[in-house]
Design brief:
CATH topology of the largest domain: DNA polymerase, domain 1
Oligomer: single chain
Distance between the termini: 43 Å
Number of strands: 5
Number of domains: 2
Low-confidence stretches: 85-91
Strand order of the largest sheet: 3-4-2-1-5
CATH superfamily of the largest domain: Tyrosine recombinase, N-terminal domain
Number of helices: 7
Helix content: 40-55%
CATH class of the largest domain: Mainly Alpha
Length: 181
């Protein structure tokens, strides 16, 4: 019999119930057919909003088809990490350095790349809102990247976009030596 574990978690600062199971098309179809089932690319799993999740209904729908482990739901859900400034709120409080945008244009980056790099770099600046970005160390940058991975659970391509946006500033705008992360 197939196994499915339900565990409490946090996604986008909201408590959720995450469904953990080995890839199986039939099981995916079963979970997908349940009310409120959502797929998260960043979590790489199916989940349900904790406030709307009905364990009894879920159990009845999967009864006899899968072994359901819901023992972790009796524990408290993990606490949401402290909210950091996102790129959307950062735009209201923090301005992108003029030289950053000018250098992107001079290097003939596409509009999509300019938009992505700007968004990523604003998020980076917002994370260090109380520090001067010109004085940040490689260790500071690593802390930001670990935050993206561990707390925001960004995908590898998204992580690379942030790295490249940061490297662009230090290497192309400030003309510092090449950085490796």
């Amino acid at each position: 019999m197939k196994n499915l574990r339900l565990i409490p978690d946090i996604h986008q600062h909201e408590p959720i119930v995450k469904a953990i199971f080995a890839y199986d098309r039939e099981l995916i179809a079963l979970v997908k057919s349940q009310k409120g089932a959502l797929w998260s690319q960043s979590l790489q799993s199916w989940y349900f909003s904790k406030k709307d999740f009905q364990l009894n209904s879920f159990y009845q729908a999967l009864k006899g088809k899968v072994y359901l482990d819901y023992s972790k739901l009796n524990t408290n859900a993990p606490k949401a990490p402290p909210k950091r400034i996102t790129s959307k709120t950062a735009k209201n409080n923090i301005a992108l350095p003029k030289a950053y945008n000018e250098q992107l244009i001079l290097k003939r980056y596409s509009q999509n790349t300019i938009k992505t790099y700007s968004s990523c770099f604003l998020k980076f600046m917002g994370f260090f809102e109380k520090k001067s970005i010109d004085l940040l160390t490689k260790k500071d940058i690593r802390i930001f990247l670990l935050h993206l991975i561990q707390h925001e659970k960004v995908s590898a391509p998204t992580q690379n976009q942030h790295i490249n946006a940061i490297k662009f500033y230090y290497e192309k705008v400030l003309k510092q030596p090449k950085m490796v992360f």
